[in-house]
Write a structure and sequence with these properties.
Length: 68
């Protein structure tokens, strides 16, 4: 079993931890920007306005109209 010979300094631990946090931050930022792009496309798309017909037999649309 491999055992480290010396103790890792606090500075090295901090550097490694900050590198890991930086990578996590950049990947999270990429996810958020892609999500914003896709969300804006779906909100501003004409597909939602033209294809607003109820699916199935229309039971869900009748219930929602009555409750409003």
């Amino acid at each position: 079993m491999a055992v480290p010979k010396k103790r890792t300094s606090i500075a090295k631990k901090r550097i490694r931890k900050n590198i890991w946090k930086g990578k996590a931050y950049t990947s999270a930022l990429k996810i958020v920007t892609v999500w914003k792009f896709l969300y804006k496309q779906t909100v501003n798309s004409d597909w939602l306005r033209t294809n607003s017909k109820p699916k199935g037999f229309g039971f869900l649309s009748r219930r929602s109209e009555k409750t409003l």
